[in-house]
Write a structure and sequence with these properties.
Helices cover 32% and strands 28% of the residues. Strand 13 and strand 14 form a beta hairpin. The chain is globular and about 70 Å long.
Length: 377
């Protein structure tokens, strides 16, 4: 057995199938190269005596094997909170095992996150105007201030339940979107009165946020944005791993890959939109600088983090906007555009950071209180 162990927390999609197993398989293979055994489990796999019925990937058998083990010392939380019950289950696990080393902490919902980020003067200019949904009347007033508006569930992921409202004329609006199953809603052209009636039928609530839309439509009518991945490296420092473009399918208002979007390199997409190489380099530099600023600030608010996926928009003038930040990002976008080295790095960095965290913890235990050697690295 490997001398170092990393526990990966995941949620069951069904009674037997855990989410993201293909990613965890790659993580396990990378871990083996680094002397780290990856052990995947859900909080429901933890017994009363704190032993764990975890899954480890056996490369020789090419399958996952379940074993009873002790609790791993380091936890990489990959649980997606698709339901309130999942969030409560994870919260209870973290409280019960607070002495374990967690690579990251949960972030806030979209509305709370907007409020927190708005506190920072350096971040505020990158945020679209955002308010909490109250009434259809207030939403229609917002569309008159901002001709393009997005309505999003504050806890939604993957493009679920998002609406896009665009004012096309003095009394003409276009409503588009996706339902909670990510299915594209047929575009609906309406007068203000018709739109009001339609919105009432959608039963929106204060669990939604209303956000100023950024013009992201390409010449062919499809929307696009960028996914930037920033991760802690093997020295415990933030480093931008990579950034890729995402283009939504026709008639879609989002670019998420899970919703049928396609991936393209950052350079290719920027060059398609901006003729000047100097302009594209300036935009890339601003994206990266902003990513470091955001990551550092979020750690002051939430504690230690491992990685962040930032959904970034670039408007027609080249201004950079933050659409969303995700503490449990996918990295498939880099594999899809053929940036295999970047993809490998995206997989291995959480392992490198886990090893670094273990080393720091060992030093703290072994060093007397106040020992200056504890401050190195």
């Amino acid at each position: 057995m490997s001398s170092q162990r990393l526990g990966v927390l995941a949620i069951y999609l069904s009674k037997t199938r855990l989410e993201e197993l293909s990613y965890f398989q790659k993580l396990s293979k990378e871990g083996k190269k680094m002397g780290v055994q990856v052990e995947v489990f859900s909080p429901t796999d933890v017994e009363a005596d704190n032993s764990v019925r975890s899954l480890t990937y056996d490369a020789s058998l090419r399958k996952w094997v379940r074993r009873r083990t002790s609790m791993p010392p380091v936890i990489y939380d990959r649980c997606r909170y698709k339901a309130a019950a999942n969030y409560q289950m994870l919260k209870a696990f973290r409280n019960r095992h607070a002495k374990l080393i967690f690579l990251s902490r949960p972030l806030a919902n979209k509305w709370s996150m907007h409020q927190i980020l708005s506190e920072n003067e350096g971040i505020r200019p990158f945020l679209p105007v955002t308010v909490r949904y109250s009434t259809v009347q207030e939403l229609l007033k917002f569309t008159k201030k901002h001709s393009l508006v997005y309505v999003k569930p504050k806890n939604g992921t993957g493009g679920r339940g998002i609406l896009r409202i665009e004012q096309l004329g003095p009394d003409l609006f276009l409503l588009q979107g996706r339902n909670q199953q990510r299915t594209i809603i047929a575009p609906y052209r309406a007068s203000e009165k018709q739109l009001s009636i339609k919105l009432h039928t959608l039963k929106l609530s204060p669990d939604y946020v209303v956000q100023q839309g950024i013009q992201l439509t390409l010449k062919d009518g499809r929307v696009h944005d960028y996914r930037l991945l920033i991760q802690k490296n093997g020295h415990g420092e933030w480093e931008v791993t990579g950034c890729a473009g995402r283009i939504g399918p026709h008639r879609s208002i989002t670019s998420n890959l899970h919703g049928g979007g396609s991936a393209v390199s950052q350079d290719k997409l920027l060059a398609y939109r901006f003729a000047s190489p100097e302009k594209t380099e300036s935009i890339k530099k601003e994206m990266n600088n902003f990513a470091y600023k955001l990551a550092d600030f979020l750690e002051t608010k939430f504690g230690k983090l491992c990685e962040l996926g930032m959904d970034i928009a670039v408007d027609p003038k080249g201004n950079v906007w933050l659409l969303e930040v995700n503490p449990k990002p996918s990295r498939e976008v880099f594999r899809k555009i053929g940036e295999i080295a970047t993809y490998q790095k995206a997989v291995s960095r959480p392992l490198e950071y886990a090893v670094w965290m273990l080393r720091q913890n060992t030093r703290r235990i072994e060093s007397p209180a106040g020992d200056a050697s504890n401050e190195s690295d």
